[in-house]
Amino acid sequence: MFADTATPVAASAVSLRTDWTRDEIAALFDLPFTELVFRAAEIHRAHHRADQVQLCTLLSIKTGGCPEDCGYCSQSVKADSGVEATKLMDVQAVLQSAAQARDAGSKRFCMGAAWRNPKDRDMPAIIAMVRGVREMGLETCMTLGMLTPVQTDQLAQAGLDYYNHNIDTSPERYDQVITTRSFADRIDTIDRVRAAGINVCSGGIVGMGETRADRVGFVHALATMERHPESVPVNALVPIKGTVLGDMLADTPLAKIDDIEFVRTVAVARITMPLSMVRLSAGREAMSDATQALCFMAGANSIFTGDKLLTAANAGDDADAAMFARLGLKPMTAQEPMRAGK
After folding, report:
1. Range 287-313 average pLDDT
2. Structure confidence by residue, pLDDT tens digits, 226-242
3. Chain mean position to CA 214
4. Catalytic residue IDs
5. 333 class by beta-carbon count within 10 Å (0-12 exposed, 13-18 middle, 19+ buried)
6. Buried b (16+ CB within 10 A) or exposed e, 16-29
7. Could you read off the pLDDT of 165-185 as tens digits, one per residue?
8. 94 CB neighbour count, 10 Å cutoff
């Protein structure tokens, strides 16, 4: 583990590459597994505390009824998953959940709404949530779909710390997963958020039946952004019955990504984006402690904790505390390197 006397390299002293080629990224994926993890671990320890993992909590503030047709999502109106549409949560109920998350050790409180884009009438409540959570001393993150310039500025003025907008998969595979919006739509929103001064949280999902070349393209799209995302969530698909991908992959060898390939993806993300927080997100409840330990060794240093991620099950606070005790890990207290370097 990271020695108490060691000091990560200051973010301001790091020259980050944004010119990675797909061939270079493919070569990283092709390295012998132990060599790849070793290289990723070295880079991770140069910039992060290897014995600390950031704890985040995710709350669905508006569930179901989304008009998008994302093939992995149980909240799409196209899915027959049994998820019922709800209205936007009351502000005070959201703040109560945030207080509970803070008391359980979370550093960041993430709020997700199943929208293609928020309505202007919903923005006053959204802004009140952001301000209320920030007043508790928590970092704030929102995922609301696509944003207009006015909505983006409103969130920035409210002090939103992060906006999550995943690219989901490689540009080439995108329209096989989602048809109601384009890959370019995602990038436009990310660029708008970045220009407003809000930190970017953007990653995607592996295990959707994609090839390694798609995983190369996915990492390449993130690692060649003008500024790397401050947070990069790496999700393993949770195949939910009633969703397009859940039904398509059920009972097939593709229904679960190989653990070693998942760790490889985490390691390559760490090497190509040294200062970003790499987060283990959906799918953790199906991973063994050993697999998660390999992910932490390979550079993952953020997790969602709690019993639920939007509508999917999660490992839970008690299980995570037990795993941290076994691995000698502790919740992160320091500021993220990319934010500290601003």
Report:
1. 81
2. 999 999 999 998 877 87
3. 18
4. 66, 70, 73, 110, 141, 201, 279
5. exposed
6. eeeebeeeebbebb
7. 999 999 999 999 999 999 999
8. 22
